Amino acid sequence: MDYAIIENNKITNVIVSDKDFAKSTGAICCEGLPIGIGDEFENRKFKKLVTDYDKDGIKISEHYKYYDAPSDELKPTLEELQQRYDTLSIQYIHEKYSYDEENKIMREYLSDMTNEQCKVAFDTYNTYVEECKIRAYTEVYGN
Question: Do 11 and 68 share a domain, yes or no?
């Protein structure tokens, strides 16, 4: 298959490779797309400058044509999945606890771990956090 090597949002090379090797180099599949070195890649789309000519070969216009990367390339990266998981976890936690409330619970518990009221508040908070993390994990990774 054909894969594009991308540097600074520009195609610097097109290689023929197996999927595993291409993925290990960060290359993006471009099989069957009319793109080449110098074309651009941004927002998960290939961007090619196209020049139109009239019947006498005189340039009449230039415009960009966009090509979607093949669907298997549109899957989020592990880093994107992790970032989504982290964001959702925090979002879900803050549906119930503000930053100030979180800090207060942790500060009071750490200042006196023998205080039963502080321990109950911390355990309740911590159980909720774990539930939020499971909810976010399930939404992001699906299992």
Answer: yes
pTM greater than 0.85 (yes/no): no
The whole-angstrom separation of Cα 93 and Cα 123 is: 14
Helix, strand, coil percent content, the chain, rounded in steps of 5: 45, 25, 30
Residue 62 near residue 51, CB atoms below 8 Å: yes
Cα angle 109-110-113, degrees, rounded to a multiple of 5: 65
Q: Which amino acid is at 141?
A: Y
Q: Which candidate, 68, 51, 69, places its Cα nearest to that of 60?
A: 51
Q: What is the pLDDT of residues 43-93, one digit of tens each?
A: 778 888 888 888 888 888 888 888 877 755 556 778 888 998 999 999 999
- According to DSSP, residue 31 is labeled T
Angle subtended at Cα 58 by Cα 55 and Cα 62, rounded to the nearest 5 degrees: 105
SS3 132: helix
Domain boundary among 41, 74, 107: 74
Tokens 């006498």 belong to which residue?
56
Range of the domain at 95: 78-141
pLDDT confidence of residue 74: 52
